[in-house]
From TrEMBL, chains A, B:
Organism whose genome encodes this protein: Vogesella indigofera (Pseudomonas indigofera)
Record-given protein name: Polyphosphate:AMP phosphotransferase
Domain Polyphosphate kinase-2-related: 11-234, 270-490
Pfam family, one: PPK2
Top-level lineage group: Bacteria
Length: 494, 494
């Protein structure tokens, strides 16, 4: 979920300055339209890691916009008045009126998250609180409130650096509190629980936006643009807002730097090394699937990737290591008539493996947010809810002890072209290349954006995506087998 | 929630026969249209108390409709295949395809409910499961599935009678199992948890329908009509179904017998008795609000009723017993401009009392589902979600230790007329009667239906409605004061 926010987004000063003036003017304009029309309020929740610039973002927004029309509320520990009343009371009190902007620094999410991080609640109680929040936000949305939730992110090592830097300078040392260091010590606990929280509360009508908080220019521009876009989109609606069908669009990174582009696609790996390691890995994998503890688990492998990225070859290297009675390959193409008559996830649910079994999906449920999105087979509202539904599906598998691993096999456009050509030239491979493959290639950039969104919204620490550089197929196969073996070993304690 | 299902609905044989033939034909007709159009499936969940006729209902539907197009699935304890997979897997497997009807005898709701009843789960884990269900049904609804959930009800004493009757006859004795008697012993635990479950999962797109199960004719007609109405309504839509905005209408009882009509409005009570008891009750109430334990609680009194039913007089008899520093009366009229700019419940949240305090609402948040419904001030989808939002609000108060009591003061149309006239004749009471009161009177029947729906959908054992027969104001005031004192005593252990 935080992948794209950790690849180091930067916007240089001159680019920033050039855009800031226009952005500011546009923001002021929509703010006045919001005020003048007085039809709905905007509620902004600012959350994130310590040191990721939450306070600065709040100040920036107040500086850019007309602060007289912004109501800022910071929530720390509840006071007596609040403690005597239901949990949500103090948030109700600070809600913005129609035409206004409310900005919450911390919110009910902080209560839920830190009660969990500090073990004041167990996982069920945490989920119950998230359920409370979901109902609250659904009610706000139904009453017309536009809700935007920002998570400003900062990787663990960068957080440490930032806190040390601030401490060193006498002018900023006061900014670093004991709580900051305490939270730094809890970093992975905060991250994992925040991820769970955001997964369950990321709705179309009140979406989470994860922003890389390291570079101030990037952070400000991203937040400002998202704000502008959300307000413009809502103000431009020619019908009454409906929480179900009107969804927020996804904003691309302000510096146009995509996660996939940070992957080094060419990796050196010789055929000899490959042969040697392959045998060892296959033996290791075979042993792991025979491990007595594996009988309490199942393994779900999901393969996606560019056309001709080598999914089939990689899958064969896995099945060679498996007992034929234990595994099943499910090739996913267009849904059958029977499948089209059912809710869309049904065709994947039917292949959920039992204990001790392995199911390998060659293409998967991610078609919903890839091909169906890019080709327009599904409406925006439908593929948008797909992220939520997919997360829900995978976490149900995982809560049932399944080990779920997802691989994206990435090749470059050039590599794909040469593979396409060689397929056309090689008789027995000719069936592998179709008109559709060439058509998909034309939409290379659209797919790239869809893949990055997919990874950001569905990679969680419990059910992660593994990005596989696949220009070199030997490297890719070894990487995949190693990932599977390591995940099994970690789970089985083997 | 079960109020209207416990007032003894009966439909005689000849009425039943007369209607059954037409209903059956109409049902077959919509079933074929459903099949022919093949646009969406219908999923029926049949739940309820033991002995309330769940099996009979299932058979009845299979008899009325074309059973070849109905897929019936009964869910008992999960088998090995199911136990190895996520909880929801076995329900996914039995989902009906587009154009078909799926009927579940027991479902994921039974799993959640009985795990809680048998204390296998605690309250948080129960809520988490309900949250899982809510997401599942939202997904179904978004994918077009029409979901109807029936709860066939039977009061505790009637359940006992039914089980004994079945046992006595050798021909039916086999129907009564040990599990039935076990559930009978858990009756109130099942009822309370079912109520909680239905409250949290009663959505506009997948509503619960509570049906009095005692009389077979009434039960069958009610279920059949609800089915017919839901299918007709959906098939008649001239746009693609949207889970957010298209809602199921509320079906009136098949015998047109309303809860309010079961109330005996005239009650004998002399002024002398009143004076005597009033003083004692006021003293008792005063003492209770000074009880040391009351400092951990608060008291929220909600008054609704017919115009001129005597709310003001009743409230005065309460406040006479209270320390002025402890209570506050909130008269609720049309929302102010400030209030209209906020989500609708905001104007009630702002008056939530702190610990040791009493807030008396003279008219309440129930205006949303009464006047706003009847006068068309709110759209159907909006007042429908009001039930859910009101329940949520009140249960947040209650979870925060508030004692919430709701009173409906009911008078007859004749009594109201004579009070209106006497108000017009008495100088100092003249301000109490307006044109609007006369207009409301014209909509007497609409209000009656709205009041009954309101009570059915918002009276829970934790936050109950008290229906007060108020033709005799002395009786009404004593009843109200007694109810308050008893609720306080129960809560404070005083």
């Amino acid at each position: 979920m935080f992948e794209s926010a950790e690849i180091g987004h930067v916007i240089d000063k001159s680019t920033y300055k050039a855009e800031e003036a226009a952005l500011r003017e546009a923001l002021l304009e929509v703010q006045y339209e919001l005020k003048q029309r007085g039809e709905f309020p905007l509620l902004l929740l600012i959350h994130g890691m310590d040191g990721a610039g939450r306070g600065e973002t709040l100040n920036q927004i107040n500086e850019w916009l007309d602060p007289r029309l912004i109501h800022t509320a910071a929530f720390d520990a509840p006071n007596d008045d609040a403690r005597e009343r239901p949990w949500m009371w103090r948030y109700w009190r600070e809600l913005p009126a129609k035409g206004r902007i409310g900005m919450f620094f911390g919110s009910y999410y902080s209560d839920a998250l830190f009660d969990r991080v500090d073990s004041k609640t167990n996982r069920d109680a945490f989920d119950k609180q998230l359920f409370d929040i979901l109902r609250f936000e659904r009610m706000l949305a139904n009453d017309g409130v536009l809700v935007l939730k920002f998570w400003l992110h900062l990787a663990e090592d960068k957080q440490k650096k930032r806190l040390k830097l601030l401490e060193k300078d006498p002018a900023t040392a006061w900014r670093v509190t004991e709580a900051d260091w305490k939270h730094h010590g809890q970093y992975s606990r905060i991250k994992n629980n925040a991820e769970h929280m955001m997964r369950l509360t990321n709705t179309a009508y009140a979406p989470w936006l994860v922003v890389d908080g390291e570079d101030a220019n990037y952070r400000s521009l991203t937040v400002g643009r998202a704000l502008l876009q959300a307000l413009q989109q809502r103000l431009a609606l020619d019908h009454v807002w409906q929480a179900r069908s009107d969804v927020a669009a996804i904003t691309p990174p302000a510096d146009n730097k995509l996660l996939l582009e940070s992957l080094q696609l060419d990796q050196a790996f010789s055929k000899d090394d490959y042969k040697q390691q392959l045998e060892a890995l296959q033996g290791r994998l075979n042993g792991l699937t025979r491990h007595p503890k594996f009988a309490e688990h199942s393994l779900v492998l999901a393969f996606e990737g560019n056309d001709a990225a080598g999914k089939g070859g990689a899958i064969r290297r896995i099945t060679q290591a498996l007992d034929a009675r234990r595994y099943r390959i499910v090739p996913v193409a267009a849904p059958t008539e029977e499948e089209r008559a059912m809710p869309w996830l049904w065709r994947f649910w039917r292949h959920v493996p039992g204990k001790g079994k392995v199911t390998i999906f060659d293409r998967t449920w991610y078609g919903r947010v890839l091909v169906e999105r890019v080709e327009g087979f599904a409406e925006t509202a439908d593929w948008m809810r797909g992220y939520y539904e997919i997360n829900d599906f995978e976490h149900q598998l995982r809560d049932n002890n399944a080990i779920v691993l997802k691989f994206w096999l990435a090749i470059s456009a050039d590599e794909q072209l040469s593979r396409f050509k060689s397929r056309e030239e090689t008789g027995f491979k000719r069936f592998k290349i179709t008109e559709e493959d060439w058509r998909n290639r034309d939409k290379w950039d659209d797919y790239k954006v869809a893949v990055c969104d997919m990874i950001d919204r569905t990679s969680t620490s419990a059910v992660p995506w593994t990005l596989v550089a696949a220009n070199n197929k030997y490297y890719a196969r070894i990487k995949i087998l190693t990932t599977i073996c390591e995940a099994l070993e970690a789970k089985l304690g083997a």
